[in-house]
Every structure is written in C-alpha cells, then in structure tokens.
Fold each of these.
Amino acid sequence: MTICKRVIRCFLLISTFISVLTAQQSFWNQLNISINTTIYAITVTAQGNIFAGTANGVFCSFDAGATWSVRSSGLPYGADVGTIASDMAGNVYAGIYSYGVYMLKSDDTVWSEMKSGLTKTNIRSVAVHPVKQNVYVGTSNSGSFLWRKGDTSWSVMDTSLSDIHVQCFLLDTLNNLIFAGTWSGIFRSSNEGETWERLGSTTSFLVTTLAITSQGVLFAGSSNVGIFRSTDNGMQWTPKNTAMFDSLVSNLVVNAKDIIYTSTSMGVFFSTNNGDTWISITGTMGRVNYLTLDAGHYLYAGTQSGTMYRSKISTTTGVEAGSMGAVSGFALYQNYPNPFNPVTVISYSLPVETAVRLAVIDAMGREIEVLVNGRRDAGLHRVTFDAARVASGIYFYRITAGMYATAKKLVVIK
C-alpha cells in the first residue's frame, strides 16, 4: 500500500509539473532569430520595428520578427551592445561598453557616434523620455549624462549625485521625475538631474532595474537580494521576493494594467498584486536577460543563448498577434505613451471586417486629424498619431466601427 501511494504521488507530481510547463510554454512564441550570441537588450519602436542589442552588434526585424538582419554598420567591430532604446520617431540609441553611445536614425542604415561632451564611454544604461525625447546615459564609474532634444552635445547631470555608478534609469512622465539606480541605492531628481535626493533605505544593494505602476508604486531589482517595493514615493522599501528571487534581477517592466513582469536568474515571473505573489512563465526558454513591452503590450524576452520570444497574446487586451478569431468584441484602447510629445500609438480591435473611422478631435469637437477612414479586417490594429502640428492640451480620439462608437482622452505636452 505504501509503495502504491508513493507511485501515485510521484505520478501526480510529474503530471502537475508537465501541466505547469505546458501552461508556461503556451504563453510564448519563439521568434525566427537564432544568432548564437547573447541578447542583452531589446527595443521595439513605435513603428513596430524590433532591435536587439547583443554581444556581437545589433540585429533588427521590420516584419514582426519573421526575418532578421544585422544592423551594425558604423558600430565598432564586434560591438558589445549592452543597452538599447528608441524614441517615438523610430530613432534607436545603442550603448556600447568602452565605446560610447551611437544613434541610428529611423531613415538611415548607418550608426553615428554621439560623442561630443561624453567624457567617459563605459556605458551601462540608455533611456529615452517618451514625451521630451531627451536621451539619458548612465556609466559605471563616471555618473550620468543628458542629451536634450535639439542639442548637439552631452551635458553632465550628476553634480550632486553621490554615486557615480549609474546602472539604470526610470522616467516617471506623469510626475516629471527621474529615478537613477546605482551601486549604492536609488536617487530621484525633479529638475532633469541638476540635483538629486537619495531615497530611503536602499544603500545596501546594487540596483539593477526600476519600474513604476500607474498608481505610483515603485519596484527595484537588485544584483543579489531580489525585488523591493515602495508605496511612499521611495522613502521606505520592503522586500517582495520569495527565496527564488534571492539572486540577480535583470529586468522589471509594468504594463498598462499594472501587471509586473520580471526576469531573474531563476526565470521569468509576473505579479498581478503589486508583488505580493509571483507566477512563473519561464517555460523552456533558458536564461532570460531582458524583457520589454511594445506599444500593443506584447511582452518580448531575449535570452543568454541568442533566442527571442514574444507573448502569444497582448498582456493587456488578450488579443493574439496575427489572430482574427481571438478578438471577442469591438474595443478602443488607451494610447501609449500618454501624455506624449509628439508621437503616440492608438490601438483598436475589431471582431469582424467593417468600415472604420478613427479621428482626433479637440475639446470643441473639431476634427484635428483623421487617422483611419476605410474598411479594416478583423483583429488588432495600431495607428500612429503625430501631434507635431498641434498645441499642448487635452484632445480626444473617437472611433466609429459599424454600430460601435466610443472615444478616449489623450494629452499632448510640449
């Protein structure tokens, strides 16, 4: 009887493991990239182009990951691209340790070095403000630098930052704040880095990544002691990790529904309750170095072995990429980013083919621009709105599709 119980228990454990693994695998689609080199970072432009920073240059896809090509012309030979970011115009910025920062314009195929004013080249992080379009760079022993939109050189922004090892940035666009994760804790600036304030009891660990929810809840990942959370603007921090997180946390991202995703040395996890509990979606991907979300909130994962994955469904809408049957009804989604300057992405879904009219209107109800006017297939659709010609303020975007009609608010900040 005892042997029989043990056999049944083993069978149940194996069945549970297989079920969990199958569920995790069903979350991901592997993209058609196999480059046999480590993927360190990923950015997906507002136009949907995917760029991967790797241990051997940059690879890109202009067809949602179906085909890939090397895009390293102008970069140092064998460039170790540890960080990569993009702005709303589709320009891409690559940070290369020991070489500096390079920019690839959206209409170009050759990278150009952003050298003027950058006194050190040991780049650890690159971030782009989605509204101001400013570029921020952190280094491993020389502080941080800022390239404002329209400038022709870098300016130092760490005169009062006591830690010169800047590992990551978090840009809080709603409150106009910059957070810097360093080797000795977290700092915050409300004036574009002119002055900095150390936050809370975070001096005991190296901060590798930062994220914030729409409700202002802050998360910090560390190099060896897991994930921390703050609900009081960073003044107090509490650990939000199980034993499996007492290791490297390489990335934290938050979607529009405040679901938090993290990549760690123990796998990929998500939380729907502000980090109180975590669920694994690792599957068989192996070591994941980086996570990012695109404008439609599909989740991307880049691995140590050079493979890349994308979530089968949008993490906010539940719409399957490329699938018509997955859409259960009409929907208009919140634009991203919002507020913005000057470009944002608007998504909508259709359960059937129908005539669609999508227009931006001002507070007086006058049409500013018609974005869509014609028949569209069933499925998820995205369209870009460029507000370069309109003034700062509150506007609305309104959709009419068959008998369905609704509108949402967007905010232009210049």
Note: The two ends are 75 Å apart (CA to CA).
Amino acid sequence: MLNRFLSSTIAVFVIGLLFLAQEAEGVNRHNAEAVGKPASLIENIKRILGFDLAIRLEKEREQLTKESSSYAHYTMGVVFDNQNQAEQAKHEYLRAKDLTPDEKQIYLRLASVCIKLNQTDEAIEYINEVKRLDPDDVTSSFLLALLYISKRDWAKATAEYEKVIEAHPDNIIALSSLADIYIIEDKLAEAVRIYEKLIGERPEVPQLYFNLGIIYIKLDKKKKAIDSFRRAIEADKSYIDAYIFSSGLLIKEGKKDEAVSVLRKGLEQNPENVRLLFFLGSCLYEIGNYAQALESYNKIIAIEPDYTEAYFYLGITYDKMGNRAAVKRQMRKVIELDGDNDAALNYLGYTLACDGENLDEAIELINRALKIEPENGAYVDSLGWAYYKKGEIEKALELLKKAVELYGKDPVIFDHLGDAYYDLGKKSEAFQAWEKSLKIDPEQKKVKEKLRKYKRGK
C-alpha cells in the first residue's frame, strides 16, 4: 500500500524536511517572536522551493500521514483476521477504509471478514466497491456470483458469470459454474450446450463428460448418458463414479450383464476399490448370482474389515440363499461395528421373530431401531410380528394397524394384519387384509392359499 505514496527520493527528503521544519517552528515559536526572526523555517523552504511546489509537498505529507495511519489499521485488521477475531478485524478495516476510501484491498478484506460473520449483504456491498474501483476485476465477479448463489439468487449469479464469460469466453470455471446454475434452474438444454463447448475445448478432462452424463440422466436420455460416462472412462480409467453410474443405468435399461461387465473392467484397473466391489456385488445380487455377490462382499471385508455395508449385504444375500444362521451372524457383526444401525437392528430382530427364536431379544432389537426411526412402518410391522409370534395378538394387532397407517403399500404388512385378525376370530377383516396384500403383489402363493382356505371354510 505504501509503495505508491511517495514519488521520488527528493520528495521523501523534502517532506521529511517539512516535518522537521514544522516541529522546529512549533517548539521555538515564542523564541522566534522574541528575537524578531523575519520568517519561519517553513516559510524559508517555501521561498526556496517555490510556493506551489511547497504547498503540493505539504499536501503529500498530509496524505502520507493519512495513508500511513490507514496502513497501520489495515495491518492490525490482518492480525486480528489471522487470529479469527472477525469483529475486531472488521473494525480495523473500516477505520482504514475511512482514511483511504479508494483502496481495493481493504474492501476485499472487509468482504472476506463479513462472509466469516455471515453478513452476506454487506459482503456484496464491499465487493461491488471493488468493482467500482476496478471494473475489469474478474475475481470480484466470481466472488459476487458465489455470494449470490449462497442467497439462491440465481439471476444475479448468472449475470456475474456472464460478465466473466463476455470478457473471457474460454474461462472453464465460469462456464461450468454457469452450467451448474442452469441445471439448478432446470435449463438443461443450455447446460448441455455449455458442456459441449467445454468438451470441444478440453476433450481430455473426464469430469466434463461425467457432468454431461448427469445432465442427460435428468433429461431421461439414458443412452447419451451411458455414452458420456463411457467417454469419461476413456479419458481416465480410474474414474470410479463413471463406472458406477454407467452400470446403474445399464441395470435400469435391463442390461444387467453389461452392467456387470462395466464394473469388472473398472476392477481390472482398480482391483481394490471397495466402491466398485460393492456395486458389483449389488449387480450380481440383482441378477440372482448370489455366490459371486458373496465373493465381492467378502473381498471388501478383506480390504476393509470394518466396512459395515458389506456385512449387511452379505446378510441379505445369505437370506436369499436360505442360510438363516449366516443372516443372523452377519447382522450381529453389523451391530457390533455400529450399534445404531437401525436397518441391521430391525433385520436381526425380524429374522429372530420369523424363526420364533429369542423373541424378547427380537423385541428389544426392534425397539432400538424404532428409537432411531420411530415412524418407520416396516419397523413397526416387525415389532407387531414379534408380539404376534409371542402370542400377544391384541398388542400385535394394534401395532400392525399402525404399520398400515405409516406404510400402507407393503403386502407383507397386510398379510401380517390378516393373520392377526384371523387369530382373533375377525375373519372378514382378515379376508380384506389378505386381499389387499394380494392386490399389491399378486404372486404371493402363501396368501393365495390363505384366501382359498378361508373361502372353503366360510
């Protein structure tokens, strides 16, 4: 800041001389008057240098004093700022601003400290001052855009990014940020146009293809999205998310074998990536290849022994294979690693209830899950079923009715409700509940058999 204050060594010398002259004049004024000196030292300097030059130098001295004081306040502000004392820093910056109102750096510091204090509107005012002082400052447009984004003022943020792009048409950060706003505002065609422009300029950047793929998903253009993810992988074979999103879309398209192939190719390049292994296990589970799904989950555990999701999905895979003991073992491991895993607490509790084992423990486990997710209809159904298996049918019925209120789209809940009604002699209500269950899932053989028995015995 001080570098620009003095124009030359001579100016420094003369201003210093004026300081000394003023001091000498103040100290000796009465002596000078007493002896009748014809002129003060300042007046003599003015006479020697010429009046206009002397006046200009006096003004520079006054400005130097102001700017020196401003710099002192600014420096103290920086000290407070670095100590995370934002209020004190702001106070010092404001004093510096009052002394030198045209210093860009002071406004930038004020904006920064206002952001720390969550004073967004004030920060915007100070950044606008920076733009007033330096209209070509691109950084200030970026800062303004970010501040407007924090206020969800997409129109003003867009305007700032457009200013940057107007001055710098190939600015990748501004272009991609503008595209992100277009995505938020659901202006997806504009976002596609920007990403295609970016890809044309930077075809080696995998993130651009990936982001374009995400936009195509939003546009429900799955084939174009898959192609974009493929190009992201070609640009960077370690781009894990591209493999995962591509495989997910292929599964939705019914191309499960292709999805597995994509993930296996990813693992060829990244053999110990647990996310790829996890999604491979999920794909294999989806296509009914349970043995290989188990293999994927076990590989994860070998790499990361505390990976709770791997144990959980091992459990549900064993459930599909009918290995109930393994289900319970895996769910207990999940709970050992994460005692607040409500999904595992419910799964183990419900499994114990279905098998008629340790029913008090089952109720305790499900209640723990419900403390975490009290409005979860599936968990309420599990608790109701545990009480049903324990023989407390009235209590079970109340819980099962509540489960229907919370989650009335699950055929299993209606099946359980029908069983409770039937055991309490309310056969008409049981019939209605079973019919609702079958309407949701017409392939339930056991429910069909219950309805047939009911109709025969009616």
Note: Confidence is low (pLDDT under 50) at residues 1-42, 44-51.
